Amino acid sequence: MKSVVFDLDGTLADTSADLIASANACFADLGLGTPLDPVADALTAFAGGRAMLGLGFERLGVSDTSAISREFPNLLAHYARDLDVHTRLYDGVEACLQGLLKQGYALGVCTNKPAGLAEDLLVRLGIRDYFSAMLGADSLPVRKPDPEHLWATIDAMGGTRGCGVLIGDTITDRKAAQNAGLPCILVGFGPLGAGVADMKPAAVLDHYTDLEAMLGPIFDDLEKV
């Protein structure tokens, strides 16, 4: 079975504003203001909660690295409450997922977002039912870029480990696919824009209307191996 695995944040949906808001809420709780910008710091948002907290504390001149660990549960609590205030699917996502299912592809999500939050967000965005499997950061003892995270997702989808493609947006996704010996398509509409081409993915996706045509030749090459 041909497996198409998607990252979530920055790939299926622009979650950056809600992620940044959750980190800023932590700083505000401490009386430190809101040091992060939802636009300028979008790339850091997609790197995860600890990265956002680290950047914020750095800007505030807080050198105590243990503050990140102390505030991380608070960040998750803020985010769980308001995870879809500003978050929106990227243009064309749902129509693309419908088309891929009609073509017989198995669809899954492999994300470094905690599984509970990922499940909740996919449900709220109305696309959870398109995916036969969803693995988050805490679904296994390891996570991307460890290849086992991607392989286990494909296993849960009922797919074949050597016949899958990862759609992502960051170097973490690129390395996860590379470590798993699978091709990776990176989206060109995230914070890095066309700069994702520097990571040498199998292809750069500029709009979801192009994905179905892009997958055909990639899977043809996989089936020749």
Automatic annotation (TrEMBL):
Its EC number is 3.1.3.18. Gene3D superfamilies: HAD superfamily/HAD-like (3.40.50.1000), Putative phosphatase, domain 2 (1.10.150.240). It catalyses: 2-phosphoglycolate + H2O = glycolate + phosphate. Pathway: Organic acid metabolism; glycolate biosynthesis; glycolate from 2-phosphoglycolate: step 1/1. NCBIfam families: HAD-SF-IA-v1. Belongs to the HAD-like hydrolase superfamily. CbbY/CbbZ/Gph/YieH family. This is phosphoglycolate phosphatase.
